[in-house]
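For the sake of transparency, this paper describes our internal protein records without simplification. The remainder of this section carries one protein's record, kept here as part of the documentation:
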Amino acid sequence: MCNEKGYTFIWIMFVVAFAGIALAGAGQVWKTEARREKEKELLFVGEQFRLAIGSYYENSPGAKRYPDSLEKLLLDNRFPTATRHLRKIFHDPMTGVAEWGLISRPGVGITGVHSLSAHKPLKKANFHERYKSFAEADSYREWKFIYLPGEAGGGASQPQAQPQNQTNSPFDQKQPAQPQADQQQQTQPGSSMFPASPDPSGENDSLFRRREPPREGVNPG
């Protein structure tokens, strides 16, 4: 009888230990997935700051300049009407507070932001081309979201190169006229001046490739 109780006790201890190991493993998996989601959010939020800084710079009345504080992105008083480049000061997903490291130069202003978290990133590949240097980062502090003048996706549009030695032909196909809304963008109070940015994680680049309008067919004479 005593032997049976002893075996039962050993079996119970084995089950408890196994369950503990399983729960610990599941908890680690959940923690890793939660960190990856926060990394995606950090890439998105950092890109919003970069675009907002670019909007402030490129739409400067007169000489172009960077903001001297993040609050200037929320309310730009350089215009007669209220102009917003950023909806709000986002929380840093890695720290949980609305506090960011500022990248600035004396006499120039704030050119970018970065996280204040010293943790080592999990993501090491498949970044957007603009952020490919993040693959070598040892901490989230090195994920720096900086706007450089004339950058695609955050500044003035770049002119497209025209082919040389192009000859005119009566059979050339015509491109449909662009809508007026695309030709001239007006600054709307209370909204960002810039369109949505590409996926900074680099996972959905194909969704943001420019699509050419359909060409009109040529009717035979």
Notes: Residues 155-192, 205-215, 217-221 have pLDDT under 50 and may be disordered. Residues 20 and 26 are 10 Å apart (CA to CA). The first helix runs from residue 2 to 58.
